[in-house]
Design brief:
It is a single chain. The chain has 446 residues and is α+β, with helices and mostly antiparallel strands. It contains 23 helices and 13 strands. It folds into four domains: 137 residues, Beta Polymerase, domain 2; 85 residues, Hydrophobic Seed Protein (Orthogonal Bundle), CATH 1.10.110; 160 residues, Hypothetical protein af1432 (Orthogonal Bundle); 51 residues, no CATH class. Strand 3 and strand 4 form a beta hairpin. The structure holds cytidine-5'-triphosphate (CTP). The site of cytidine-5'-triphosphate has 12 residues, from helix 7.
Length: 446
């Protein structure tokens, strides 16, 4: 049960554990932080499990927040950082695969660890006790396996989100999923439909941002995407029999996700960039698959998916713009490029180059060289445009609405129209971004 492994706890965690122990309670770092330390990864947060009741925790620490008292969780603030301190508990029956109807506090660490999802997440550590590993978590870390604690069906029955979490952890940690756990994923994935969109979104995003987003294919084979992202299933069965491609739409999508930097907006864009291909597919007279209008239609479907997953407006706006433009040819001339950057948005344009690069990397390798060369040339021109400080938007135009009002033009549509014409002129030739020139040309004549 005990082990001589040493984990270097942050000072705040040591202090919380020793304060609880001095008051006669047991306390341990638990869950993800123990797992990550044993893997040599830096934990994102430190959770503490204790035999103390929430009221004891509130009494023993100066700054506490009652985050989830009914589930036994009190947040302790130490040196500006938050630490969740949760009383040992046994979860009651989950009536809806989402929430335990009740939780019962217990004095047994074993019972607390036994209610957790996976063996690698069910270990505790304290400087006094060392590692407490009652379910083979260290062996599974060594074998790189995600295995439910005890009966997988029971664990998934308690919280169906764990079905997706199994795949997310496998993707993040480069682990396999244990055979029995995988069978339970296949059997129970339908119950994911009871889980809130926000919780699904969090796990799906972690999977997409992981080192192995290709676990999405396993999710498809096990029936998981059929429940949370059926649009992806259609992609998996849509061929792309033409010279540009070498994979189905689904595999191309996964390869494109992998090829993109691990950024939320970029990976979501790659997930959704071809999402309408299944409904746009036609076979031309030469027997080749073609997908006319797929970018615009993908914007529509991507919008529906992102709304369903309750994404915020800003993420939606960025992803949809990138999906819309992902297949647009990039102008190579400086003037055309400035107009394009203006239309894409300065913030999104460099992201669009990443999207296009990832898209190319997931297509037929024999077409790659020339297409990447275009991106490189455009990137160089873009860097030069930035270095030269060329005007790329109304905010950089040296005439503004006030200037026009001062010249007697009444506020309203006309001003917007004049500014737009000035901007087009300046995008075409940056040397025209000169007040006297622009007013002379566009106001005096108008
Ligand atoms: N846990 C669980 N079942 C869940 C969610 C969480 O048993 N559905 C337990 C696990 O012991 C897990 C711990 O609560 O390790 C903390 O959960 P969470 O913060 O979601 O995951 P971490 O393991 O900390 O991993 P990460 O921070 O990378 O998400």
């Amino acid at each position: 049960m005990m082990d001589s492994v040493h984990i270097e706890l942050p000072d705040e965690v040591k202090k919380i554990i020793s304060t609880l122990e001095s008051a006669g309670f047991e306390a341990y770092a638990v869950g993800g932080c123990v797992r990550d330390c044993l893997l040599g990864r830096i934990p994102t947060d430190w959770d503490i499990t204790t035999s103390a009741d929430p009221s004891d925790v509130q009494r023993l620490f100066y700054r506490t927040i009652p985050t989830g008292i009914e589930h036994g969780t009190v947040t302790v603030r130490e040196k500006g950082r938050n630490f969740e301190v949760t009383t040992f508990r046994i979860d009651g029956k989950y009536s809806d695969s989402r929430h335990p109807e009740s939780v019962t506090f217990t004095s047994s660490l074993r019972e607390d660890l036994a209610r957790r999802d996976f063996t690698v997440n069910a270990m505790a550590y304290s400087p006094a006790a060392g590692i407490v590993d009652l379910f083979g978590g260290q062996d599974d870390l060594k074998d790189r396996v995600i295995r439910a604690v005890g009966d997988p069906e029971q664990r998934f029955g308690e919280d169906a989100l764990r079905i997706l979490r199994a795949l997310r952890f496998a993707a993040q940690l480069s682990f396999d999923v244990d055979k029995d756990t995988e069978e339970a994923v296949r059997k129970l994935c339908g119950t994911l439909s009871k889980i809130s969109a926000e919780r699904i979104r969090t796990e799906l995003e972690k999977l997409l941002l992981s080192e192995h987003p290709e676990l999405l294919v396993k999710a498809y084979r096990l029936g998981v995407t059929g429940v949370i992202l059926p649009e992806f299933d259609s992609c998996m069965v849509t061929t792309q029999n033409n010279r540009y491609h070498c994979y189905t739409v689904g595999i191309h999508t996964v390869e494109a996700i992998k090829a993109a930097p691990a950024d939320r907006v970029l990976r979501l864009t790659m997930l959704l960039h071809d999402i309408a291909k299944p409904c746009c597919r036609i076979i031309d007279s030469m027997g080749r698959d073609r997908f006319p209008g797929h970018a615009d239609k993908s914007v529509e479907i991507a919008d529906a998916v992102l709304r369903r997953l309750k994404y915020d407006n800003d993420t939606r706006r960025k992803v949809l713009k990138l999906v819309e433009l992902h297949d647009e040819p990039l102008p190579e001339g400086a003037a055309g490029l400035r107009v394009f950057i203006h239309e894409a948005g300065r913030e999104l344009f460099p992201m669009l180059l990443e999207v296009k690069r990832a898209d190319i990397m997931a297509k037929n390798p024999s077409m790659r060289k020339d297409k990447l060369a275009v991106i490189d040339r455009v990137r160089e021109k873009y860097d030069r445009i930035l270095a030269d400080g060329d005007c790329l938007g109304l905010d950089e135009l040296c005439v503004n609405g006030q200037d026009l009002i001062a010249l007697g033009i009444s506020p309203g549509k006309e001003i917007g129209e004049i500014l737009r014409r000035m901007l087009m002129d300046v995008l075409n030739d940056p040397s025209h971004n000169e007040k006297e020139y622009l007013l002379d040309k566009y106001v005096k004549d108008s």
